[in-house]
């Protein structure tokens, strides 16, 4: 039977796990569920699962688990030899290219992201200029991962057809 599944978590790769945990807890207010922990290739249940996912030879990585205000999990990974891409915004290629958070103070959160080593990619825009107060902006965390900010819920933003003239 098909029914709408709930969202459990997302995994984000970074080059500095402690810096990322600090950024996401102090800027977005997310909770630490499991502090930075090293996972190694071995015969443990997690070691075997990681072999299934990454293949043989991954060696080790570090991970922390956080949770958003609405209980969505965020796994933050720091892999050995982690590299920050020069262009993390190849939107024309398949895969997740951003995640979105909601805050009524879009401008304030964007400024806080910039103050803490991130980047604001565009000016704050309105979906229904002069009609409804729905705003959005794209930013980046200090590692180039894209964060979109909405002022209102996804349902409210799109229920009336945000792109209609």
UniProtKB/TrEMBL annotation:
Protein name: Glyoxalase
PROSITE patterns: VOC
GO molecular function: metal ion binding; methylmalonyl-CoA epimerase activity
Residues in VOC domain copies: 6-152
InterPro entries: Glyas_Bleomycin-R_OHBP_Dase, Glyas_Fos-R_dOase_dom, Lactoylglutathione_lyase, MMCE/EMCE_epimerase, VOC_core
Keyword field: Metal-binding
Highest taxon of source: Bacteria
NCBIfam families found in the cross-reference section: glyox_marine (TIGR03645)
Annotated TM spans: none
Natural source organism: Desulfosarcina alkanivorans
One GO BP annotation of this record: L-methylmalonyl-CoA metabolic process
Keyword Metal-binding among record annotations: yes
SUPFAM superfamilies per UniProt: Glyoxalase/Bleomycin resistance protein/Dihydroxybiphenyl dioxygenase (SSF54593)
